[in-house]
Amino acid sequence: MAQPETAPPQTAPAPVPAPVTPAPGVRIDGLTVVYKTTAGELPAVRDVSLTLEPGTITGIVGESGSGKSTLALSLLNAVQPPGRIATGSVEIDGLGDVVGLAGERLRKARGAHIGYVFQAAQNSLNPLKTVGKQLLDLGRSHGVDDLRGLVREAKELLGRMGLDGARVLDSHQHELSGGMRQRVGIMLALVLNAHLVVLDEPTTALDMITQANILKIVREVHAERGLTTLVITHDIGVVAEVADRLAVMYGGRLVEQGPTREVLGAPRHPYTRGLIQAIPRLVGDIDEARALPGRPPTLATVPKQGCVFRERCALRMDICETDDPAALADGPRIVACHAVGVKERA
Amino acid sequence: MTVIARRLAGHLARGLVMILVVATISFFIVNNIPGDPMAARYEKLIEGGMSPEAAAQAVKVLYGFQPTGSLWQQYTDYMGGLLHLDLGVSVSRPGTPVLDVLGEAAKWTVLPVLVGTLLSFLVGVILGVFAAIRRTSKLGDALAISGSLLHGIPQYVLAMLLVVIFATLIPILPADGPVDILFEPGFNAGYIGSLAEHAVLPVVTYALSAYGGWVLAMKSSVVTVLGDDFILAAELRGMKRSIVFRYIARNAILPLFTILALSLGLLLGGAVFIEKIFNYPGLGLMLINGVNDRDYALMSGAFLLITGAVIVANIVADLFYSTIDPRVRSGEEAA
């Protein structure tokens, strides 16, 4: 059943969602997502291409409003109105292009093939029902015949994450702490045996100890179950902790991507450099951290042509005003910047 | 279960105190209303051509049962009577206990108002969901406008409109009294049919005047829940539409149950104008007549009944809420 990694991208949607192969690969190509506003349709994600290799953890870092959550929702073809995917494709092994999925096929792909974990602070559970009853709703929605088996699997997963499964399933949302809710969210994303998992700000609003626990769980569960994982965060510490590969997002564009160690150790794009310089160190003077000048663009202020980052860029050149820099690959690293010749530092 | 029992006991104790307070206040207020029922009757008899002596005698015989003694004496007698559900004797219908008068009138109020309220709740809540889901379309606009419009028209204006339309312009429905006197009261088709026919306009009035509030309340409640994260979360987990719909409906309807319980509590006292317009012999009409006749005992009894209904409705609302909302339940346990 295992699909080779080199399987050619399927252009047409698969007829019926095939049984999930462990660790699907994902190829996002030329994805543009626009939101309808009074000023017309404005892009929140523009021409993004990103490949998630099977079995890897990819981190997407960006500030609020950089379009990272919109990108995450695109993986489930779940961009909420007034937004819509304008162009591009999201090919997932075993599913085909999810941009072309709709109706029941799309619904069944969500949950069964792609697990989505919400930010812990968000209330992702129905406040009136116990976790167990919502688990059964989930099972019935996906035509699971063996509901006892599903409950057993859920208890195992919760136990694996250090919780008392029986007690948690019998609890309402308000009886669980933030860290427990987050583990319940991870359980619900995995219990139907999805092998592609998207975590949107998995550690935001959790205390440091719980953050560390959740990240440990994400890493371990990822390895044990053979997942392809995408972590969306504004916290570079989180991606440094878990991600194999890192993509930096700014103003709806992916400005730099590459192996996490390389990108953090030798950032090339001026935005990535600025981000890393802005992190205060635990030891040393707080003044060593330098804030990026200016402020991030919003949907309305993001430049329509030229480089999205030029307003805040120290390396700005004339060409940045008019031409959007292309994302150029150099081995595993991809940078979109006129000023930084990727070859020059390689 | 013990939590519920403890809650109930607390409510009952508070309710009892409230009833005593209301009984006291209404007793003294009613006793201070200017006018004297015996003098009024006396004058009526004289106008009817009776000699002053005979009239005085008749009034004395008629109202011999009336409490005498100081106001304090009367108050303690009244409160003592309350303990045995003795609300005193009606003045305007000499010899009839107030409780019997209230019971006779209540049955003409409770059923039509109950049917009207439940009907409007059902229709209003269902249409409110559509008004919320289709809020950007013409259907949503139409539903919201219908809600605002009917919510804005006073109940008695609506009642008179219905009378004009369905009893005068197109006379297809009766608008006077509860039943045709032609029929033999009892369990026969003619009598029941006539009862139902006469109840249509009052019930429709209650339903239409309450409908707007339900539509608007449900619409805003559903819109709020639709924006909640757990609805998006359920969709992203691939939950069936029907299940997501149930999640929305159950969460959105919660606050409306409180309003429903409270409006059911007010149903005994809320029909005064409507019963007057349709000449329906319920509690409202009885209260109007009671005021006209300076029937102190009847007025006090009616106020007490309405108070009791509101208190009971509050208790029911609270207990009901704590069974359907787990957050309220555990809040009590934690306390």
String of helices and strands of chain A:
EEEHEEHEHHHHEHEHEEHHHEEH
Residue share in helix of chain A: 25-40%
Biggest β-sheet description of chain B: none
CATH superfamily of the domain at 106-292 in chain B: MetI-like
Please report the distance between the alpha carbons of the first and last residues of chain A: 40 Å
Which CATH class of the domain at 106-292 in chain B is shown? Mainly Alpha
Averaged pLDDT of chain B, please?
A: 84
N-to-C SSE series of chain B? HHHHHHHHHHHHHH
Stretches with pLDDT under 50, minimum 5 residues of chain B: 331-335
Helix/strand/pairing category of chain A: alpha/beta
The largest pleated sheet of chain A is described as: 8 strands, mixed
Average pLDDT of chain A works out at: 86
- Individual helix count of chain A: 12
CATH-assigned homologous superfamily of the largest domain in chain A = P-loop containing nucleotide triphosphate hydrolases
Please characterize this protein's 3D structure:
The complex is a heterodimer of chains A (346) and B (335). An 8-stranded mixed beta sheet of chain A has the order 6-7-8-3-9-10-12-11, sandwiched between helices. Chain A folds into 2 domains: 26-113 and 194-345, Rossmann fold; 126-192, no CATH class. Chain A is globular and about 65 Å long. Chain A contains 12 helices and 12 strands. With 346 residues, chain A is of the alpha/beta class. Chain B is an all-alpha fold and 335 residues long. Chain B has a domain at 106-292: MetI-like fold (Orthogonal Bundle), CATH 1.10.3720. Helices cover 77% and strands 0% of the residues of chain B. Chain B is built from 14 helices and no strands. Chain B has helices spanning 2-31, 37-47, 52-62, 71-83, 98-133, 138-152, 155-169, 189-226, 229-236, 241-265, 272-278, 283-292, 296-324, 326-334. Chain A binds chain B through residues 73, 76, 78, 80, 107-112, 116, 118, 122-130, 137-138, 140-142, 172, 174-175, 185, 188-189, 192, and chain B through 228-230, 232-241, 243, 247, 250-251, 254, 324-327, 330.
